[in-house]
Amino acid sequence: MIDEETQEIFRQETEALIESLQECLLQLNSTPEDMDLVTQVFRDLHTLKGTGAMFGFARLAEFIHDFEAAFEQVRSGNAVVTPDLIAVSLKAYDLIVALLEGEDPAAEKDAELKAALSAATSGDAAPAAAEAEVVEEAAAEAKGEIEGWKLRYKLPPEFMEIGGNPVAILEELLEIGGPDTKVEAIVDGLPALAELKPNELHTAWELLLPADADEEEIRDVFMFHEDSMELELTAIRAAAPAAVEVAEAEVTVEEAPAAETAKAEAPKADTKKPAAKKSGSANVQMRVSAERLDDIMDRVGELVIAEARLSDLAQKLNDPNLTEVVEDIRRLALGLRDTTMAIRLTPLSSITGRFQRLAHDLAGKTGKDFDFVIEGEETELDKTVIEKLSDPLVHILRNAVDHGLEDNDTRVAAGKPARGTVRLKASYSGADVLISVQDDGKGLDPDFILGRAIDRGLVSADANLSRGEIFQLLMAPGFSTAEQVTDLSGRGVGTDVVKSTVEALRGSVEIESELGAGSSFTLRLPLTLAIIDGLLLQVGEDRYTVPLAAVEGIVEEPEAIRDGSDPTTTVELREKLISIMRLREIFETGGERAEFPKVVLVRTGDQQIGLAVDRIIGSYQTVIKQLSPMHSRLNVFSGATILGDGDVALIVDVAQLVKAQGLDQDGKEQAA
Amino acid sequence: MSKEILIIDDSPSVRRMVAMTLQQEGYEVTQCEDGAEGLDTAKAKRFDMVITDQNMPNMTGIEFIQAYRNDPSSSGVPIIFLSTESEGDLKSQAKAAGALGWVMKPFEQAKLLAVVKKVVG
């Protein structure tokens, strides 16, 4: 019986294996002589075959058998890795994935690919390998009916040394022969006592089994030893010949185990189910269902809130004993929070395999030669974020190759290296993760983009847009048009979906480009989705939170701007001109103005902005709750959090607020 | 006392499947991920039977059998070699190294149990 957990382990194991397989194949494409990679491919295939077969994927195992054979040729030096072999192998890889996912591709495909694999490793184009082997079953010979067997055997001398039990063999034979079996030990071969080693076996046996047992059944007793022992087996037949049906060889083996084990065996269709269910988790070591993880995260979130309430209470009661316990609980809750968040983190490498494959396919389709470089794939992100990022990144990567990179001749003519480079780079930046796709292609032409946006009616003709704003237009819905659709880029999600997906993850997309030198699309994403360290601020009667990671400093509000009532102003702070947003005015909150108001300096993108607030309450574990759909258009808030006293504090999305106030550096009203 | 079996295989799913099959029948199972780990484990404690895969990182099954058989503590401990059909010649290599027998992958659980019962009772 294969339980669900085993099937889940199988699914994760095969996912890791096929990911490794694809990666090795792609690497082999650039370093065809790397024998370690060949060995790895061979090993991955081998394991896939073995486990696949055990989990009921017979067709898969059969197909991989030939795939593996092709790489055995390479491994043993009879063939070399060629672009042809890699191309065919990648197609074979696709078939493996399809089979694992429970699809049922046309059967000819197996044969076709097997033939191609064999041709690619033998130089022989004849599809001989595709022909199914015909196993001939030995026809039953109609002889006289068997009445019994005469048997003489001598086991290898080391039989006991390697763990064999001669008595067990005798017992098994007696079981076949029944109580009337005659046994005789022959000790002729016994060496002299001085030379006799106690662990060696020198006795031979002669038996007369009065049973019409099948020959296979008797030979099976010696199953592993037949080729290293002496065995004479003669049938004792009755005089009258009669037709005998040959029993299945398996019967004897199946006899031994308890009936329930045989019954409990899962049907093949069932074992395929887990592989067909495709979820994104590729981390081999993770054996917890995603749902349970989310559940834990929720509870930890609630715990953090409860802990905050307890802290509040302890502070009010001012009891040192209680404070001590509260401190302990606080430490534990925070530790638990960090561990839980770490569990959810998955390295980007869990999805980079498919990008490598995509790059390979794109090179083939566009005829553009380029290097695909991945940097920082050990960078870890929340599992949910990683899963959702795959499609947007595929889209950006396609665009980079399809629209970004010039063809090789154009590049040479422009004085660039013929081979382009596309770089997928991930790194940490404070509480954010940056994932960028850079190409050294022709770059984006702001005038062209602006012209098209005006044509499409996305901006008015007299709009005064910064360079950054113009590039952002690329991601406006309706910018991309049918004209632009090619075989490669015109599929899947549009660039506007990239933007909305990333923003739904509380991230942003930054586009930079230099005409003639290349472009880069950078996705800025929060490390985790659930809990952040926040700075709790008092503004009038209300409280707001900003992500602590964005905070760079806190200063007294300069006298110079204290009396103004514009939502934004500019002041010189630390010898720099800084835009200040007065949250009281922006959010129109009432209440007393504080005597010593503060300015919180926050970083957004390359810009430092000041937030004028009344009071700094302190750092606060912020469990992010999504705003209701009704309020989701309030994009200056990325969510809300529940405070210890049960009140709600809104979480300020500084970048959006800056944009809404027109203070972003690319904006029309340049601050400085 | 229940019989103790050591299973060495780098595939977690195969390992688990073998372990479950045997545990259901009351055997005690210890699992190791490769030959090297298996060797340390087998030397440290006597098992009633060892089941090993061939293709593993660090130390293959056959290398494990050779190394283990070089150690006097392996005397009388049966080793079953897990092998796939493409490795016909490995079977004899494994036997030469000191395996008692083999089970071909893919195997049915019932078949595996039959072999185990035959070897350790």
UniProtKB/TrEMBL annotation, chain B:
UniProt record, GO biological process: phosphorelay signal transduction system
Alphabetically ordered keywords of this record: Phosphoprotein
4-aspartylphosphate found at: D53
Residue ranges occupied by any Response regulatory domain in the UniProt entry: 4-120
Pfam families in alphabetical order: Response_reg
Xref: SUPFAM superfamilies: CheY-like (SSF52172)
PANTHER family: CHEMOTAXIS TWO-COMPONENT RESPONSE REGULATOR, STRESS RESPONSE REGULATOR PROTEIN 1
Name the record gives this protein: Chemotaxis protein CheY
Origin species: Thalassovita mediterranea
Lineage, opening ranks: Bacteria, Pseudomonadati, Pseudomonadota, Alphaproteobacteria, Rhodobacterales
Gene: cheY_2
